[in-house]
Amino acid sequence: MKVLYEVVKSPCLTEKSNILQELQGTVVFKVDPRANKIEIKQAVEKLFNVKVSSVKTTAMRGKQKRAGINSVGRTNDWKKAYVNLSEGEINFLDEL
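The chain above was modelled as a monomer; its predicted structure follows.
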């Protein structure tokens, strides 16, 4: 298994993720693009001492960025994980 802090990079704090957390108990994380659902579930459970019921992932493509007139580049591709917590678990991101 990979190092836990390499699998889960950071929470994704957006308006959509805040609404999902309040209504459904789903927390959104930026994760390593090579990590699978099992590794993400184990890392979240060990890092935050919560029970995870399901994990959904999506690959996010990097955006095109312009630097000057003639040079165009892209940001890195990344992966987003929607982690659904079990019933009775608290919203632990409020404590961070």
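The longest helix spans residues 37-48.
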